Amino acid sequence: MAEQLSQTVVPAPPARLEPDAIGVAQDTIIGMATSAPAAVVALTLASLAAAGTGAYYGGGISLLICAIPMVIIAYAYHRLNMWNANSGASFEWVGRAINPYLGFLTGWLMIAGYVLGTLSGVEVLGPNVLAVFGKDSANTWANVGIATLVGIVMITIAVVGIKVTARTQVVMAVVEYAILIGLSIWGLTWVLGHHAGTVPISSGWLSPSGIGGKGTAVGGFLIAVFAFSGWDGTVYVNEEVKHRRLNPGRAAILAVIFLAFIYILAQVGLQGVVSQAKLQANADSPLVYIGQVLGGSGWGDIAALAVALSGIATTGTGIVVGARIIYGMAGYRALPEFLANVPRRFSTPATASIVFGIVVIALGWVYLLATSVEGAFDDVVNLTGVLFAIFYILTALACVVYYRRRVVSGAWNAITLGLLPLAAAVFLVWMVAKSIAGLAAAEQWSLVGVVVAGLLLMLVAKFVLRSPFFSTRRESDSGAGTVAD
After folding, report:
1. CATH number corresponding to 17-468
2. Can you tell me the distance from the alpha carbon of 391 to that of 385, in angstroms, rounded to the nearest whole number?
3. Does pTM surpass 0.70?
4. Beta bridge partners of 106
5. Which of 236, 264, 254, 315 is nearest to 39 (CA)?
6. pLDDT digits over 86-117, tens only?
7. Contact at 8 Å (CB) between 360 and 373?
8. Which one, of 47, 72, 77, lies nearest residue 62 by Cα?
9. How far apart are CA 330 and CA 56, in angstroms?
């Protein structure tokens, strides 16, 4: 019986979300918003420019180098989505190509990564909204109220429909990216104009170890990997995208390219506007501080608006994307089946959206109010980049395994479906190993806790929910014919 079950072909659940609802441009915006460009710049600008733990002004080249494996892995997502366009994405791909148990763990890491990634937006959301209105950014209850209100609004939008979500994201993105790119270009011209107090551009800016080798390439790469996390959000809405097998993967590739452009421009354009000492002294809000230096308090408020919009946008996309991963897994009873409910009125995974959003709001309350555990939450949030890197690695390996017959069919396939995904996976494995080795003991135990929780949930899914997914037999591309790209 066990042998027969291991050979079972488990069909994917039928698509029940709204088909052909959004195009590739809107999907690209969703992927970029999930990465939260302005918020990421605000969180990483000073740390990338720091000596010792950062790249010491070599952040631009670190971001460029990390963009290469990210584009390669985005292409792997593209090819896998051409095979199986389901909102579970890597959960299904790893499970069907390599092993269903590993697929479940991949899905859990995706959920955990998106919960923590969305939660990390709490760190910048409230203070920057308050800064826009000239209020005390340290007011705890005001921060709680803003986080709660934004969470409720974004849950509502997520439930109402993907079209409303996409339109909302586009409006916020236009404003956010215009401000961020404008400030970056302004900052670059400010530095090139040799204004007093600026750090002049030098050859050290082109080295991953920074000026005089005082930076660390590994530190810069680790921060860069965190910065790119989230572009894969384009794929989890694949059931609702026009040409669902092609466009989500294309949107993922475009999202990585556009994010690389914005991040590199922002880092190079802004890191030298003020001295190292002043940048580090204002590391909690470097974007706002630089806006004030360039154009006075008014431009500081505008910079705060960009960061606030970024935090709001990533909260919205985090709920949308996280809910669809949960929906994709629940469709196989790998999670409680009620999480796969789709109301006909909205054609969205409403229950999963509400649950995901409530979890984020609840964790946000704990993070903001229970200062005694704030350090523990920081430890967990700091693992976001590691979690994303791990399931990116597993997805790249799934691409190689599924297309293994094509890998040996010709030079082009050997490079694009074999050598490059493996090289990108190896790079991220190296980064994860370096990252884990450099984590504090509390952070390492937090990572162990996330993995153990996933293993326990796997046992529940297997023996309590009796998910048929664990009976899925391995699949692979036949290697025959051509695949449109």
Report:
1. 1.20.1740.10
2. 10
3. yes
4. none
5. 315
6. 999 999 999 999 999 999 999 999 999 999 88
7. no
8. 47
9. 45
